TrEMBL record:
Source domain of life: Bacteria
Family affiliation: Belongs to the peptidase S1C family.
Chief localization: periplasm
Signal peptide from the UniProt entry: 1-37
Protein source organism: Mesorhizobium robiniae
Statement: the UniProt record of this protein carries the keyword Repeat: yes
Stated name of the protein: Probable periplasmic serine endoprotease DegP-like
EC number: 3.4.21.107
SMART domains per UniProt: PDZ
SUPFAM superfamilies per the UniProt record, alphabetical: PDZ domain-like (SSF50156), Trypsin-like serine proteases (SSF50494)
Length: 504
C-alpha cells in the first residue's frame, strides 16, 4: 500500500471480539445503466438483484503471537529469586489464552465475488486474506463455506480462493473489458462495508490510469461510488453486470468514504486470476532492463523532440537482452505494438506479456528510431538474477589511496579509476570510467544527487576513460550549444543510472 496515511483499505479487522483498526483497501464503484435520468441513472434494482448472489463476504481469522489483548496486564519484572516469582508465574502464565506468548485471535472481514460457479472459484484482494489461518466465504443466502487458497499476487493485490460448491448452487459473474470504460460512465459496487454485507452503491468513473504508488503495475480506476471498510475485494460492475474492477483502496482522512476510491481494472486482474488458477502463481514476462523516466532535460540531451518513453539505465546480466539487442542509453517508446508514453507504462505491458513471447520493441538509439526483436524471459526468474547482481561488490575497503591526477568539472572533482581509487571507494573490478572523488556542496552535481565514489562511464552516450576525456566531451557539448550534459553513472557495484547536469 501507499505511504500516504490517508490511503485506506477496505478490510475490517476485529481483535478479541472488539472492532480494531482497518486494514486493506478498496475501490469506489459506480453503476452503469443504459437508461439515465436527468440527475443520475435510472433504478438499478434489476441489475443489483441479479448480481447480489455472486458477491460474497469473506471472513478470516489469524492467531497472532506476542501481543496482548485489550486490558491485558504485563507481567512485572521481579528481581531474581523473589519470593513472589512463583505467584506471578501462576497468575500471568497459566491464564487461558495467555500461555507464554499471550497469543490472541484476530478476525477480519472483506468482500469477494464468484467467477466460476462449477469450480467454486472466488476472487478477492490479497490483503483481505493475507496471513490468515482460516478463511470462510459467506453467501447472500446465509450459507458459509470453508475456503482454500489457490494463489496470491502481492504486486497487484489479487487473491484466488476455492470453495466446495457440492450441495450448494453458486451464482457467478463474468469479467468485462475495463479498457472500454470512460470517465463519466456509471458503475455499481457491491460489497461488505462494516460487515453489513450485500450493500449496493452507485457512482461514476472519476478517472483512469491512476498511480497511487501501491505497486509496480498501478493503473487504477478511480470512482466516487461509496466504498467503506469491508469493501476490499468486492466487484465494480458496468451497466451490463460485468466486473470491470476489483475494489481495492480509498483515500480517506477518517476511514470512511469521501468519494475517492480505486479499483484494479479487469484488464490487469483477469490475466493474474487466470495464471493463479492455472499455476498457483504468476508467470510474467521480463525484459531484463533497469529503467528511469525520460525528463525534458534527458530528451534534449538525446536529441528527442518530446520527453516520452522509458530510458534504459542498465541491462541485467543474464537477462533476455544481455546480448546487445537493447543497450543502456536506449529509450523504449513502443513495446509489442503498444505505446510507452511514460516509464511506468513499460513494466505493466511487459508483465502482461507471455513468457517466451517474441515481441517487437521500438527504441531510440543516439537519436535514431529503430525496431528490435526480443524474446521475453520470466520476471520471477529475473528478480532472482537482479537481486544477486545488486548484492555483489559492495564492500568498503578503507581510505588509504594516494593522491591521483584530478580535474574539476561541473561541481565535481574527478580522477582516474585505478587500483588505488577502486580500493578507496570499494568499486567493483568490472566498472570502468572516471571516478568522482568529490562533489561540491550546492553545485549542479550535488543537486542531482551525485556522490563521491560514483563512476562516469559515458557522457552524451560516448565512453570516457580519463579525466581529460570528460573535459573534452563537456567542451564539445558547449561548442554545440548544448545546455545540458547527459551522464551515465555507475555505482560502486556497477548499477547504472542517467543524470543530466546543466552546463551554464
Amino acid at each position: 500500500m501507499t505511504s500516504n496515511s490517508f490511503l485506506r483499505a477496505a478490510r475490517r479487522t476485529f481483535t478479541s471480539g472488539a472492532a480494531a483498526l482497518l486494514i486493506g483497501a478498496f475501490t469506489v464503484p459506480s453503476l452503469v445503466t443504459p437508461t439515465i435520468a436527468a440527475d443520475g441513472p435510472a433504478s438499478v434494482a434489476d441489475l443489483a438483484q441479479g448480481l447480489l448472489g455472486a458477491v460474497v463476504n469473506i471472513s478470516t481469522s489469524q492467531r497472532v503471537k506476542g501481543t496482548e489483548g485489550p486490558g491485558a496486564v504485563p507481567m512485572p519484572q521481579l528481581p531474581e529469586g523473589s519470593p513472589f516469582q512463583d505467584f506471578f508465574d501462576d497468575f500471568f502464565k497459566n491464564r487461558p489464552g495467555e500461555q507464554g506468548d499471550r497469543s490472541q485471535k484476530v478476525q477480519s472481514l472483506g468482500s469477494g465475488f464468484v467467477v466460476d460457479a462449477e469450480q467454486g472459484i472466488v476472487v478477492t484482494n490479497n490483503h483481505v486474506i493475507a496471513d490468515a489461518d482460516d478463511i470462510e466465504v459467506n453467501f447472500s443466502d446465509g450459507v458459509t463455506l470453508k475456503a482454500t487458497l489457490v494463489g496470491t499476487d502481492t504486486k497487484t493485490d489479487v487473491a484466488v480462493l476455492k470453495v466446495d460448491p457440492k450441495g450448494h448452487k453458486l451464482t457467478a459473474v463474468k469479467f468485462g473489458d475495463s479498457s472500454k470504460m470512460r470517465v463519466g460512465d456509471w458503475v455499481m459496487a457491491i460489497g461488505n462495508p462494516f460487515g453489513l454485507g450485500g450493500t449496493v452503491t452507485v457512482g461514476i468513473v472519476s478517472a483512469r490510469n491512476r498511480d497511487i504508488n501501491s505497486g509496480p503495475y498501478d493503473d487504477f480506476i478511480q470512482t466516487d461510488a461509496a466504498i467503506n471498510r469491508g469493501n476490499s475485494g468486492g466487484p465494480l460492475f458496468n451497466s451490463a453486470g460485468e466486473v470491470i474492477g476489483i475494489n481495492t483502496a480509498i483515500i480517506s482522512p477518517s476511514g470512511g468514504s469521501i468519494g475517492i476510491g480505486f479499483s484494479i481494472p479487469s484488464q490487469l486482474a483477469l490475466g493474474v486470476v487466470d495464471q493463479l488458477r492455472q499455476f498457483g502463481e504468476t508467470r510474467r514476462g521480463w525484459l531484463g532492463v533497469r529503467i528511469q523516466p525520460v525528463t525534458e532535460d534527458i530528451a534534449e540531451s538525446l536529441g528527442m523532440a518530446t520527453a516520452k518513453g522509458a530510458l534504459v539505465a542498465g541491462v541485467i546480466k543474464g537477462g533476455p537482452v544481455d546480448n546487445g539487442t537493447i543497450l543502456a542509453g536506449d529509450v523504449i517508446i513502443k513495446f509489442d505494438g503498444r505505446d510507452v508514453n511514460e516509464m511506468r507504462d513499460l513494466p505493466r505491458v511487459v508483465a502482461e506479456s507471455s513468457v517466451g513471447k517474441a515481441v517487437d520493441v521500438v527504441i531510440v538509439r543516439k537519436g535514431v528510431e529503430q525496431t528490435v526483436k526480443v524474446t521475453l524471459g520470466r520476471l520471477e526468474d529475473g528478480e532472482k538474477l537482479a537481486s544477486s547482481e545488486d548484492g555483489n561488490a559492495d564492500q568498503d575497503n578503507g581510505d588509504k589511496a594516494p593522491a591521483v591526477a584530478t580535474a574539476a568539472v561541473l561541481g565535481m572533482t574527478i580522477g582516474e579509476l585505478n587500483d588505488e581509487t577502486r580500493t578507496k571507494f570499494g568499486i567493483a573490478a568490472e566498472v570502468s570510467g572516471v571516478v568522482i572523488t568529490e562533489v561540491s556542496k550546492d553545485s549542479a552535481a550535488a543537486e542531482r544527487g551525485i556522490q563521491a565514489g560514483e563512476v562516469i562511464t559515458e557522457i552524451a552516450q560516448e565512453s570516457v576513460a580519463t579525466p581529460k576525456d570528460v573535459m573534452d566531451r563537456i567542451a564539445a557539448l558547449k561548442e554545440q550549444g548544448r545546455k545540458n550534459a547527459l551522464l551515465m553513472l555507475a555505482s560502486k557495484s556497477g548499477e547504472l543510472r542517467f543524470v543530466t547536469i546543466r552546463m551554464d
